[in-house]
Amino acid sequence: MTIQREIRRKAFHIMAGMSIPVIYYVFMVLERTWMATWILVAATLGILAVDIIRLRHQFVKIIFIDFFGPMMRRHEISALTGATYLMISSLVCVLVFSDGVAIAAVSYLVIGDSLAAVVGRSLGRTKFFEKSFEGAGAGLLGCLAVGTLIVLLPETGLGYLQMAAGALTAIVVEMLPIPLDDNIRIPLASGAVMHLLF
Question: pTM of this prediction?
């Protein structure tokens, strides 16, 4: 995938992905997190269903690739997409963790992973496994920035120590060659660390 396509992919990833923590926060302030959770359940089941249908029916796969092909990685053509994994992990986060931790964990995935990928592909020189320290640094700064914003938002209940530990965990897990999709392991690992420090 060229750097231009990677930037387009990650820009879409940020816009679509950040809608989850933003909308959830709005419902949290309105004291309607149960409603946000049910919306997320419905959206997750819907996206998962579309993905499964795509994998089983060639006609649907062709249409899907026509629309989303430029933003898909090669392995996603014959497997669940990153978007599906993002929805699943987001749902698990809001069900398992406190509101502030869930919002931060999903935000770290969306912002940190996107910045790490774009900077790593364009400027990365110092390699660690298949990742780069330059990308990791950019991802960490992005996580710390969005994490600080979440700490400062009313009613999240997130502390600076939790925020920083979760951000660092997200980037370390992103760099390690763990045989599990980034969209699953990053938010669940960072969320677990923040939860333990709550």
Answer: 0.90
